[in-house]
Structure formats: structure tokens, C-alpha cells
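Follow-up to my post from last week.
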Amino acid sequence: MKQILHIFRKDTRRFWLEILLSLAIMTALVCVYPLQWSGPPVTVWASDNARNIELEVLVRGLVALVMASWAILIARVIHAESLVGERQFWLTRPYEWKKLLAAKLLFLLMFLYLPLLAAQYVLLAEAGLASFASLSGLFFNLFLITGIIVLPLIAIATVTANFFAMAITLFGVVLALFGAIVALFIHTEFGNTAWALMFLAIGDPFSSRQAATIGSHHAQPWIALLLLTICGAVVMLQYSLRRTRVSRAILLALPVVLGVAAVVAHQRTLSGQALMDRMYPALAAGNMAPVQFSFAPIENHTFYVSRGENPVGITLPIRVSGIADGVAVFAENERVTIEAVDGYSWSTEVTDYNPQRLGAANRGMRVGFFMPHTIYDRFKSSPVTLRVTFGITQLQATGSEHIAMPTHDVAVPGFGVCGGPYVGYGLIKCRSALRKPPLTYVSADWSSTPCPASQTAMEEVRGEFWVGEIGRNAAEFGVSPIAFSGVTFMPDLNNATGGKYLCPGAPITFTQYRLAGRMQTSLVVANLQLPED
Amino acid sequence: MSTTIQTHDLSMRYGQTEALHEINLTVPEGAIYALVGPNGAGKTTMIKLLMNILRPTVGGAEALGVDTQRLAGEVFNRIGYVSENQEMPDAMTVEALMDFMRPFYPRWDRELERQLVRQFDLPMKRKLKHLSRGMRMKAAFASSLAYRPELIVLDEPFTGLDPLVRDELIESLLERAPETTIFLSSHDLAEIESFASHVGYLEDGRMLFSEEMTVLAGRFREVTITLSAPAPLPPKLPSAWLLAETVDCVVRFVHSEYWGEASEREVADLFPGARDVEWESMPLRSIFLAIAKTGRTQNHAAQTTAGDGRPKA
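User reply:
Got it. Predicted complex:
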């Protein structure tokens, strides 16, 4: 322990300037970040919204600087006893590698992790989200940051001789990563997955956490664990044996490992029927699906074929019924199969392009797909049997919270803190601790009469919105601990609700849902005659 | 007498280049062992292998009874290592260096440290990066001697130093000599001749010899034979005769295996008409030059003749 503290003290004395710089940047981030919710109401997404844009740029810049300061701290402290080369002073001194490594980790604990933890807690407190329960999320986020940023940086520092070599290496890594993804994006369908994986891996360290999806960040802990294992092995190897060539080879192989993992993930996520069968088991005999689908035009959903085009676009109107109160159904994956009387059949891939979020109030939806013209020609001559298989997720309401359309910050229990309004749009900007809020259906009671003149109205809105995530990790990767969720009441193009005005003070209901089950269900349309060209 | 350093077929390759070839070496306890040889002979590689800075391709070594590939941590409490091209913690002052090093060594002698600092006239408040080369070496010496190591390993410690600094460093080393074993490399024969007890000669990665200085000096003689009439050299000379040449009535060579009367009889048998034979002991420098020249001559011969001794086409 004496040796650990001795080396730690030496490093602290030597790198006080780097430490000070890192702390100053972190402090600046803590000061600037809350301006995102503490300023006066602004017009979001408007072209003249200079303040928002400047603030966003400033925050992202500061987060980038925080990470750059970490890279500098790590490089400086590791290279103080460089593991690469044959001329280092410390190699022939009675350093014990375990204690040397412990001293370096202690340094990072004191000047990287503790300031980060403190900054995150202060930000949570500023956002009105600090609680004892958020501590576990903070530590989970530290685990993700360790796996995705800190340990890879340490590993690179252990196989480079100095800061310049490390900077060049990092530049090369970023360039190679970007190049590989661009190449994949241009040349293969795998590109989309590559992008997705990159963002799942590195997430958005710039604190976005804005989208509302189901389990979109599940890969983060696994990627963090993979990086933690491989980079951890490199660090141990370097400190115990200084096998730089072997360590470099391992790190160079890391992209290959990640690539294989990406391919496996790609196959698992896009393997069509296999995915359907694994994620959405068939209904047991005698069990009813929580939703019934039938082929019937309803309201503005009609049967439509974009003839004369190749491929031919086909839109099926689906009537929805049987959803019980307090139940919601997400139809996330679907596959359409068409079979002619002569036995010839054709199927689409399993797609999740247009997930449908259905509640008891929903009556209809559409399913669209494309078919090559030659196949369409083959089917159109006689009636066909059409089968749409849905992978559906059943959700059960767990409770509701009611607030008035906010003009200032309002705490929504179990969800976060919501503020607003944002002039001219039906947006409530909410924030939650460390991750997106639980999956929540937000609905508003609207008025058929204009808002009072003294208040700013949000006209032409549809008062419902799904936000949040089921199957959340304890935290999502990010330097900032705040997850923003925009609850956007969309313009009511169909006027289905009959309401027109959403005024400040209007009742807003947040209904949280939990996962109740996943299953397959099918809609069969017999004797369907496809129209002639 | 026990051994402090021992190597067994110690070999090292850098890709296709063989830096060291099957080195077998013994350094007894208390010796001042000088490893000499021209630049690029493999001296630094040898020392780095002994200090576990590099790992051998084949063979092994022990230092202070420890397998050198396990040399790490505490055992360096007993070893002092200074190298001419060692990176020092340049941002530290001399005082900070001493303060930092002190707690690592349980046997650090504060009084000896003060004595070395005084002796070397070290500027304690100056950063290492602002010191001259000589001063940096002195600081390195002070920080490596103050804990009274049992083994001091020095890689070209005096290269590029002015004579005054060199003498100061040698003096400080000799003061430690009774309590330690010293292993140092050098390509300057003059600087080690005065104090080394043992010497090893390394050339092209091969150890040509390794023995006590007194034995070495005793077995080498420069021989001058004056004949009564000019005569060619006998066709087959003993292999211990190096650099044999004849000019008119004088034959000269270096005898590398001088054993007194037996050697003198051997000369008398080969040159029965000799009028006079002089046997002169040789300074270390001349011995090494003779060995080096012989090595180069043999190398040249090997390169210009085929395996059967005939000149290459």
C-alpha cells in the first residue's frame, strides 16, 4: 500500500496541471448543462432558435472536452511509467507491477471517476432527479464508461510509448472506424446495422438519450463487457509481462472480434422467421390474442395498390378490435405471405419498418409491403390467400399520474421531471435520471375552444404520445446523467379526435406500461383478388 | 566463491539478426567484471537480458540467484542499474528524484546519499532535464548506489563523459567495490583496465573469452624472434599464435596461450635458428587489438574462401 500511495502522490504532484484542467472542464459542464432546462421558454426547432443551438453546441463541445481531458489524464499517468520500450528508468527499480497498476487506477479513481460521479450527482440534483435509487444507475453508467471509454484508452496507453503515439493511434482508430462504417454503409445492407451497433456501442456520450424505443440500448452492457474483458486482458498483460507485440495484436484483433459480434448480432436481429419464432412464440391452443385483426377498410385506411410501378406497393387496411382497457399492443414485426390457388407462394422478409402502437381506442391500421412486378403479375390473375403474421408485444398498464399541461417544471412520479411549454408546438420536454423513462402513454385532454388570449395556444394537436422504454438497463452510457424525452403531441392531420386546442393547464395523463407477453398472431385473407393494372 | 551472475547458452535474435550467440558467462561474487567489445558487439543486449528488460530467444541467466526472466519488484532492491541511454524522470529535480526513490529501498542509506550528493556536487534543486550529461549520470549513480546494492550493473556508464567526471564516478564505484559485485560494459579499454578484476570480450554476439584480468595478462605475450637469416613462416603455426608476420629476419606474433617454459620450447622447436626471442607482456589494449584483428582476419578469410579453404570463385 505504501508503494501505491507513493507512486500516486508522485503522479498527483507531477500532473497537477492536467488534473486542474480536467476538473475545470467538468465544472464548466456542470455549470452550463442545467441551462438546457432552466432557461426561459423557447421556441424549439424553430429556425431562429439560436440560443438552443448555441447551448447544444456548447454542451456537446464540453462533453467532448471532458473526454479529451480523460484521454490526456490517462495518457500522461500511464506514460509516466511507460510500458513500451527498453530504456525506461522504472524498469530496473523495485516497482511491483500490481502496485504500479493499482497506483494508476487510484489516480484515475480520484481524478476521473470521483469528479465524474460528483458532477453527475450534482446534475441529477439540479435536474430534480437525485435520489438514493439513482446511485445504482450512476455506478452502472460508470461501468459502461469504463468499458466503452476508459479501459480502451488505458489499453491504448499501455501499448504506446508516449502521448504523441497515443494521439496518432486514437486518430487512426477513429478514422478506421469511420471508414469501415462508411464502407459498410455504401456497399452492403449491413451498413445500417453497423451504424446502429456503433451508436449502441458508443451510444451518445453527448447526452442525447432522446428516442423512445423498446430495449434500444440492450447491447451496451455486452459491448462494455466485451471491451472490458479484452482491454482488461491487454492492460494486465502489459503490466505483468510487458508483451507489447502480443498486446498490440490483441487490440488490432479487437475490431475483428467486434465485427464478428456485429455479424452475429445482425443475424440474430434480422434472421426473419427465426427471430419471429424466438421472440414471439406461437399462441398456446385455446389462448386468445390480446388483439384481433381483420381485413376491412376503416376510416381512411383503404386497400391500395400502386400499380404501374416496380416493385408494386400494396397497402392493406386492417381493422383492430378486442384490445381490453388497460392493455396496449405493439405490432412490431410482420411478414406477409401470399399463396396462389396453384400452390405458388411468395413472402416478404420479416420487417419492423412500421411498428404499430395500439390501444383500446384504436380501430384501424395499415400494413404496407412491396412486391416485384413479375410476381404481382403472376398473382393478379386469380384470387389469392394472403396471410399477415404479426409479432406482437402485449403491455399492461401499471398506473397513471396526472398533471396539468406544465408552464414550469413538474415532477411526474416514476417518470421524471417535465417542463414547458415550448411555444407554438405541442411539446413537453421531460428529463429522467440516467435512462429513458419507463414505457409511458401520455395523453392530453384538449379543448374544442381556443385557449385564452393571455396564454399561448398549441393548436391542431393530437393529444397522445408514446414515450420511454421497456426492458431498460440500469443506465444508458453517457457523460451526462440526464435523459431527455420530448413528449410531442403531433398535429392531428386526421382530426380523428375532434379536438383542436391544447392550452397550458390542460390535464395530461401519464400511464405507465409493463411487458405482459410476446406472441405471434396472424390475419388470413382468403380469396383476395389483386386488381389488374 | 559463489557466483553473482551466470548465463547458460544465452542467445538473442532480432528477427534475422543474431545479437548474442550462446553466451556462457560466470561472474563471481565481489568481482568487477568488464564486458568489452566494439560498438554493436551485443554488450547492451546482454545487459538488458540480465536485467530482464529483454527476454532471451534461447538460454537463460541468473542474477543474484534469481532467474533473470523473473527479475522484478523486490529483487531490484539489491541491484543498481545505470545506463548511458536510460530515460530519467526529467521533470523531477535531483532532490525529488532522491525523495521519490528513497521509500522504494528499505536499505537506503541516507548518510551515503548525502555523501554521494556532496561528492558529485549535485544541484539538488535543478530538474534532471536541465542537467548536463555528466551531472545526469552522477544523479543516476547517486540514486543507484545509495541503497548499497549487492550488484551494480552499468551499461557504458562513462561514454561521452569528461575525464574528471569519469574519475569521480569510478572513484565512487571503487568505494562500493568491497561490498558489491560490479558488472559493466564499455568499449573503452583504457577506462576499465585500471580497476576491472575480470574481463569478457564480446564480438559479433560471441564471447571470445571471459576470465580474470591477471590470468588474461599472464597468458598473452608479444613474441619477437630474430632469425640468423630471412626465412618464411612454417606452414602450420599453432592456433594460439595470432597475427604472425615476418619481416626480413624478424618474426612477430602474439602468443595467446603462454605457459612459460613449455611455450618457449615450442618456439625453439619451430625456429631452431633463432638468434634471439623476446617475450613481452602486453597491455590490455594490445591484447584486444590482437584479438579483434584476428577475428576480422578470420571473418575475412571465411568470407573469401569456400568451405574447403579454396578461394571463392
